[in-house]
Amino acid sequence: MADREGTRRTLRSDAERNRDRLVEAARAAFRELGADAPMKSIATRAGVGTATLYRRFPTRDDLLAYVFADRLTGCADSVRAALRHPDPWQGLVDHLAHLVALQREDRAFTAVFLRARDEAETPLGRLLDAAKAAGEVRQDADESDVLLLLKAHDGVLRWTAEPEEESRRLVDCFLRYLRA
């Protein structure tokens, strides 16, 4: 784990076990309850006190960033692959499919992704620009349209008993809207 100055520190074995239990408990709580899962509940699930939780992760954002680092890295990898795709439209479609799959897997993903939106908007813009230049995406489309899709999709996942069909329909409608 890196300290506030970004230098790597070695944890005692018991501290490392506590951190690992906290991360697993947080993953489960966020997946189940969303990004606003109570911190006390996460500590309880991990079998540690809240002081231990806050010593390792001083803020909810610190914990979310740690827990979701691999998924956000996966998003960056997905964008890079999409930008290399010979068909800009298909690259965009593939990346959107990646994002909605992550939303289906974890209720907290949308909130984390939106919190990291500064890092997300530039690559999304590059994907849209490439598809616009190829004549595949309407010229007035921008990153906010994709963020709106993710918010709407999050709602479908939260408020629909059997979301698979509605999820597919929403994404299909969005893609028809985007298409030039």
Task: Report on this structure.
The protein is 76% helix and 0% strand. The protein contains nine helices and no strands. The longest helix is centred in the middle third of the chain and has 25 residues, at 60-84. The termini are far apart. 29% of the residues are buried.
Task: Note the topology.
Blueprint: H1 13-33, H2 39-46, H3 50-56, H4 60-84, H5 88-105, H6 109-115, H7 117-133, H8 143-159, H9 163-178
As a percent range, the share of helical residues equals over 70%
Mean pLDDT: 89
Low-pLDDT stretches are 4-8
The coarse silhouette is: elongated
The largest sheet, given as strand count, sense and whether it forms a barrel, is:
none
Count of discrete alpha- or pi-helical segments spanning 4 or more residues:
9
Structural class: mainly alpha
Taking the alpha carbons of the first and last residues, their distance comes to 46 Å
Give a count of the beta strands, DSSP E runs of length 2 or more.
Answer: 0
Sum up the structure in keywords.
180 residues; mainly alpha; 9 helices; 76% helix; 0% strand; elongated
Please outline what is shown here.
This protein is mostly helical. The protein has helices at residues 13-33, 39-46, 50-56, 60-84, 88-105, 109-115, 117-133, 143-159, 163-178. Mean pLDDT is 89; it is low at 4-8.
